[in-house]
Write a structure and sequence with these properties.
Order of helices and strands: HEEEHEEHEHHHEHEHEEH
Shape: globular
Number of helices: 9
Strand content: 15-25%
Largest sheet: 6 strands, mixed
CATH topology of the domain at 59-81 and 99-261: Rossmann fold
CATH class of the domain at 59-81 and 99-261: Alpha Beta
Strand order of the largest sheet: 6-7-8-3-9-10
Number of strands: 10
CATH architecture of the domain at 59-81 and 99-261: 3-Layer(aba) Sandwich
Length: about 270
């Protein structure tokens, strides 16, 4: 099956979040009046300032903003990687802002996927072993049909026995994408997932992420500073000074770049 991807790919992805899948709500994750602050008194820094946002199921969202705007902090709070100072965070209908460390660890393992700028692959394992490693650790057997579909979607069928050192950077990140998809998480969070890749490899990975939404019904939330990367999304959220200040639907790289220019000199530096 071939699906058009790239700058026009998000046209196919829109609308996925309108209906619930498998009895789950149409909202994969949401934040309600979330505040995240560091320090106290004169040294207190507010990274998130009363954020309200929903991430629709089956949709690809990019989060952008100047350095220090709170975009990575928002993603980490939504993913349960960081705690909030006040407010609530929900994954589907589960409030995760009140969970303990053990419960959060299990929730992230069972229901959330992650793709980071660094590939985080084990050098002694081959590609398929890296892909299934989280499920192996959790004592879960992968669904063979789903695993095969994921591998085909990211174009790794002929690279499964290769170790990371035998793969290009783009191929290694595709392994990381497949690893995130293989466990069928409710939502995948990406933190600058193409930041360490050249433009060609980055475009390949972004294509695969787009296809995972269009063809596999995945939900993706990605932090990026790159207008081209953001153009693959269904919508772009803009943060400044810890608040969501704008939203763009059906983005193009040119529109995103023009919007980002308006932030020059406004955001805090980290």
């Amino acid at each position: 099956m071939t699906t058009a991807v790239g700058l026009s790919g998000h046209e196919q992805g829109s609308g996925h979040g309108d209906t619930a899948a498998g009895g789950r709500s149409a909202v994969a994750a949401r934040a309600s009046q979330v505040v995240k602050a560091y320090g106290a008194g004169e040294t207190r820094v507010v990274a998130l300032d009363g954020v309200d946002v929903e991430m629709a199921r089956g949709e690809y969202t990019a989060i952008m903003g100047p350095s220090g705007s709170g975009k990575s902090t928002l993603m980490h709070c939504l993913a349960g990687l960081d705690t909030v100072s006040s407010g609530q965070v929900f994954l589907d209908d589960t409030e995760i802002s009140g969970l303990g460390d053990k419960q959060l660890t299990q929730l992230r393992r069972d229901r959330v996927g992650f793709i980071f700028q660094s590939f985080n692959l084990l050098p002694t394992l081959n590609a398929i072993e890296n892909i299934t490693l989280p499920m192996d650790i959790a004592g879960r057997r992968p669904d063979p049909a789903w695993l095969r579909r994921v591998v085909e979607t990211v174009g790794l069928t002929d690279r499964l026995k290769h170790r990371p050192s035998e793969l290009s950077g783009g191929q290694q990140q595709r392994v990381a994408v497949a690893r995130a998809l293989a466990a069928r998480p409710e939502i995948i969070f990406g933190d600058e997932p193409t930041g360490n890749l050249d433009s060609r490899s980055g475009a390949e990975v972004l294509d695969f992420l787009r296809r995972s939404v269009d063809e596999l019904g995945q939900t993706i939330v990605m932090v990026t500073h790159d207008p081209v990367a953001a153009s693959y999304a269904d919508r772009v959220l803009y943060l400044a000074d810890g608040r969501i200040v704008d939203e763009m639907r059906r983005p193009t790289a040119e529109l995103v770049l023009d919007r980002m220019k308006a932030f020059d000199g406004r955001g805090r530096t980290s």
